[in-house]
Design goal:
This protein has helices at about 5-30, 35-60, 60-65, 70-105. The protein has about 110 residues and is mainly alpha-helical.
């Protein structure tokens, strides 16, 4: 039995979470309304803050720009996609559970 290469497994998970995050973000942000939409769009606020911080850091230190602007910004998005995907999946599950309980209320026993 060969040992597991955890770095390769983590890298594969990161790159699989990126399309999952993008699909979930678009789907939940467009389909939901009210408080659920605010909850679904909130990761975009965090991502925007991270990207602005990365831009400021890159342009304030020119030696960082030598490594490639795209590479640095892409790494921010890829690393953020893991907790972003988990968060969106959790609120999707919470919304399904809430709606199911709301449509099928448990009647009190007599």
């Amino acid at each position: 039995m060969s040992p597991v290469d955890w770095r390769a497994l983590l890298a594969a998970g990161m790159f699989l979470c990126l399309p999952l995050y993008i699909i979930l973000q678009m789907r939940l942000g467009c389909d939901w309304t009210g408080r659920w939409r605010v909850a679904a769009v909130s990761p975009l606020i965090v991502l925007a803050i991270l990207l602005i911080t990365a831009f400021v850091r890159i342009f304030s230190r020119p030696e960082l720009a030598e490594h490639g602007l795209f590479d640095m910004l892409f790494s921010v998005v890829v690393v953020f996609s893991i907790p972003g995907s988990i968060y969106l999946l959790l609120i999707a599950i919470a919304r399904m559970t809430f709606r199911r309980r709301r449509s099928n209320p448990i009647s009190p026993s007599s």
